[in-house]
Design a protein that fits this description.
Layout: E1 14-16, E2 19-21, E3 28-32, E4 39-44, H1 48-67, H2 70-86, H3 88-99, H4 103-123, E5 130-132, E6 140-147, E7 150-154, H5 160-174, E8 177-181, H6 187-200, E9 207-209, H7 214-223, E10 227-233, H8 236-246, E11 252-256, E12 261-265, H9 271-282, E13 293-299, H10 303-315, H11 335-350, E14 354-357, E15 372-377, H12 382-385, E16 392-398, H13 401-409, E17 413-414, E18 416-420, H14 424-433, E19 438-441, E20 456-457, E21 460-461, H15 466-471, E22 474-481
Parallel strand pairs: 7-8, 7-10, 8-9, 10-11, 12-13, 12-18, 13-16, 15-16, 18-19
Antiparallel strand pairs: 1-2, 3-4, 5-6, 6-22, 11-21, 14-15, 17-20
InterPro entries: Ald_DH/histidinol_DH, Ald_DH_C, Ald_DH_CS_CYS, Ald_DH_CS_GLU, Ald_DH_N, Aldehyde_DH_dom, Aldehyde_DH_Superfamily, Succ_semiAld_DH
Pfam families: Aldedh
Keywords: Oxidation, Oxidoreductase
Length: about 475
Amino acid sequence: MPKLQDKGLLKTDLLIDGGWHSARGAATFPVHNPATVDLITQVAQGGRTEADAAIAAADAALPSWSARTAKDRAAILRRWHDLILENAEDLARILTAEQGKPLAEARGEIAYGAAFYEWFAEEAKRVYGETIPTPDPDRRLMVQKQPIGVCAAITPWNFPMAMIPRKAAPALAAGCTMVLKPASQTPLSALALAELGQRAGLPAGVFNVIPGKASEVGDALVTSPLVRKVTFTGSTEVGRHLMARAAGTIKKLSLELGGNAPVLIFDDADMDRAVEGVIASKFRNMGQTCVCANRIYVQDGIYDRFVQTLSTAVSALKVGDGTATDTEQGPLIDAAAVQKVEDHIEDAVSLGGQVTAGGKRHPLGGHFFEPTVIAGGTQDMKIAREETFGPVAPIFRFKDEREAIKLANSTEYGLAAYFFTQNNGRIWRVGEALEFGVIGVNTGNTSYEGAPFGGLKESGLGREGSHHGIDEFLETKYLCIAGITG
């Protein structure tokens, strides 16, 4: 159990219509610490009945919430932002306890998540309509932007303190209400954020949280006729399923799905910057990010030197419990994640890959794994085609710019990509040729609440963050007004 200054932030019940409730039959599920595998607590396990009640509450709250001025909604979102920062240390301890990431990373995630409430509090006041020049002097033409209605959010376990605000802030700013189904591995972060939302003054029913079975809660959300929008972050496989289930009621969807991010490192790259960027991208959150470097392509001229430099840097990363002050790499989320990492390494080695750093379970045991570098990568390896979601950096070789672009784009995914070069012309050529929604040039970290985030191809639909993010929760209405001249 994390030690908190404010014990009121550790919630274990469902939030429905402004009240905290147990699940039907007092059903619960366990939440474990991935570093120690110890039980943290039991959380109420919602099902279809509770999801339906939360949807009904959100629907009932919609008229009054959407009727409030944008300035009023913005003030509540801003108070929510401030409360998150005031309680950042407790939130970080909750996040590290259930997710495993080092406290320093947890603090950074919480600040990043809070920034979405600040950003969209301002964007709420910038939802503009328009007037259209009329073809008829007897008419006036107008366009309005209105909230889409009740929204459902289904969020992942890897960044709960960031992904929830990235969805909830624009929805609520636009005047929508929401039901959230958080990941079962990290429900405590979601419930703590919800508690702060209550303290910020969210009216009953505007924001509801139902941890529980995806097969019941998630299905209720995507099939209910009252829910007009679903926003989801997770795997492409699950995204396909949700899309199919939502088709019955023609819901609007935002899907942030799987990735297979390439990194292209050209001969003219700044070596130190490239190594720093790869570590920032690949090993953040133990490689458990949808935008992390999954395929590292290095040009012939610097290949050997890059492998050696990266391997040395990765071998020095400190692995340990996230609560220790010197920890840089925490545990993986569960045993299945460890097994997948091992499977990818074994497959790569069997096909000629050479482990140059790490490569095995960490002596700490449990869900800990050594940060790993594999040289000699080839396209027939699993690690080239599948998202590893773990701390393994496979390095592939390429000859020229054309080959690098072709290799990078040879995937059904299109979420994030990175490349390192000091050639100005190449920055434009490669940046425009890469088929990805987010591209980092000479950096491994592109996160900013004011920038649009989302993928191409099978990596999803829609954008989060920036002014584009609030448009995902708005409908465009055209008014044609006749009889003006009498």
